[in-house]
Each structure stands twice: as C-alpha cells, then as structure tokens.
Specification:
mainly alpha; single chain; elongated; Tetracycline Repressor, domain 2; 2 domains; Arc Repressor Mutant, subunit A; about 70% helix; about 230 residues
Length: about 230
C-alpha cells in the first residue's frame, strides 16, 4: 500500500522535512548508535510526524544510510577540491609538499574538533562493528574516488614512481592521517595528564615533512622495481 504524505504545514514543507530528519538523525546515531536511536527520537528532534521517516526514506535503515551518504559526499568533495586546487591553481609550480599539506588539512580539519566532524568519526567507529551500511559503500563513495585523484596527482608530481609504489605511498599517508583522528578521539576522552597536548598543526607539519622525505626516497628506488 502506498505511503501517504504526512500532514505538514506550508512552513514545514518550505524548510524541507527531509533535510531536517537528516540533521536530527546524525547526532542521535553518533551518540546512541542505530539500535539505540528510535524513529520517534528522530522525528521528535526534527519536530515532524513519525510517518515522515517512512515517506521520505522508507524506514530507519535507509535514513541511516543517507545520513552517511550525505556526510561522506561532503568529506569527499573537500578532499577532491584540495587536490584539484593544488594541481590547477599552481600549474607547473605545484609541489609535492603543497599537495600533501592541502590534502592533510582537508582530511583532518573537518573531522578533528568540529561538532559534525566528531559525529561522523563516532558513526564510522560504530559502523566498523555494527556494519549496517550497504557493502562497499564507503569504498565506492569515498576511498576509490579520493585514491584515484591523489594517485593521478602524485604520479604527475613524481614521475619516477611506478603505480605500486604510488599506491603504497598513499596508503602510508592516509594511515598517518587516520591515526591522528584516533588520537584526537583518545585525547578528547582521557584526562590523563601524561598525555601530550593535541596540536593538529604540528601533526600536519610532521606528516607532510615525513611523507615528502619518504616519497622522495621511494622515487630513487623505483627504477629498481618492476610493475606488476
């Protein structure tokens, strides 16, 4: 049986109930997880009819997926734009250091310290264990597009690198950035005075310097390697 549109006022319709549901659901899923968040919790926070979730998303599962999809799309665009900025604005003056710095900032700043950033980190951590997203969604909507663009840029700036070395360098860079995100979560939830002060700028500086040196070293070794 078709689901009828829930009764809403003209003001509600103008404000876009669908986006209100997404805005309300994200912090609730981040704080309480999928099972710990009810449709009534979401609609109460969004100030709309319970039927709105079924009408706009055909259920809580699809709403959960769309919350992720929307946030991943935002993060993906920020990272891709950072790569494009270096490769287009700087032209022939584009440098490996600039590329890595812009990418590191785009990767870390949206998820290290901002409210919504903290929410997506919590959701991703929960998702690792609950696994409610469609299979390969994260890979196809975030990892592959970002890897492809970064791979192309890195190959242009470092021609001696072969494909396998380029991929390994990118994996190493991303591993360092993800580690910083996990450290940020640890520092935010642990009052141990022995923990050092979390300084995002210092982390970025070190990762860029370390990665530039490592990639340059790989460039020198690459002629000895063969493509697979």
């Amino acid at each position: 049986m078709a689901i009828s549109e829930p009764d809403v006022t003209a003001e509600d319709s103008h404000y876009n109930i669908k986006n209100r549901l997404l805005d309300a659901a994200e912090p609730l899923f981040a704080a309480h997880g999928y099972e710990g968040t009810s449709v009534r919790d979401i609609t109460a926070a969004a100030k709309c009819n319970v039927a709105a979730v079924n009408y706009h998303f055909a259920g809580k599962q699809n709403l959960y997926t769309e919350v992720f999809r929307r946030r991943l799309a935002t993060l993906r665009q920020i990272r891709l734009s950072a790569i494009e900025k270096v490769m287009s604005e700087n032209g022939c003056k584009a440098s490996l250091e600039n590329l890595l710095r812009e990418f590191a900032v785009a990767f870390l700043e949206p998820v290290a310290g901002q409210t919504q950033g903290g929410q997506i980190v919590k959701m991703l951590t929960r998702e690792m264990f609950e696994q409610r997203l469609p299979k390969n969604m994260f890979a196809t909507e975030m990892f592959i597009p970002t890897m492809t663009a970064l791979h192309k840029a890195l190959k242009k700036l470092c021609p001696p690198l072969n494909d396998s070395k380029t991929q390994l360098c990118i994996h190493s860079l991303i591993a360092q950035l993800v580690h910083v995100i996990h450290l940020k979560e640890l520092f935010d939830h642990d009052d141990n005075p022995k923990l050092p002060t979390f300084d995002l700028a210092s982390f970025i500086d070190h990762i860029v310097d370390f990665s530039v040196a490592a990639i340059r070293a790989c460039e020198k070794e690459t002629p000895k390697c063969t493509e697979h």
